[in-house]
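Notes from the 1:1 (GR / supervisor)

We went over the backlog. Supervisor wanted to see one worked example end to end before approving the batch request, so GR pasted a single chain during the call. The sequence is below; no edits were made to it. Supervisor asked that the structure be written out right there so they could see what the output format looks like.
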Amino acid sequence: APTEFTIDAKSVSRRGGDNVRCVVQNPSGAKTEAAVKDNKDGTYAASYTPFEEGRHLIDVLYEELQVPGAPFKVQAKEGCDPSKVRAYGPGLEGGLTNKPQQFTIETKGAGTGGLGLAIEGPSEAKMTCKDNKDGSCTVEYFPTTPGDYDIHISYGEQPIRRSPF
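Structure output shown during the call:
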């Protein structure tokens, strides 16, 4: 899963620019450039995806000079955090029969894990899940019989907060 952090360079420039670069060295020694986005206010949003467990070194450079404290040591580990998964939308609050009901699930920042969905109720409710390509997905289901439906959502085989809905 992508890891994000902010670089604050306001003490040297409040406008931003192409001054900041980040190089990440993984535990096996390979180096990759982290993605760096200028926020145009003297801060930069940086992100990288660790593909190995273990200590990563993050070298932050401003105008090709290492910033104080760099390289920063970060311990990457495999796993997921279901408490960071969010589900919301009208389809979790109630709905009408024979009409599509929708809700959204966001997994951004929750690590690597499989998403599990189950709907239990008085009848089978056909369900589809569309990947929004931004760390979220849109779920649509179609209840055909009136009654209470329980929506179970899990991540990494663990229920997310407030599940079942």
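Supervisor's comment: The two ends are 26 Å apart (CA to CA).
Batch request approved.
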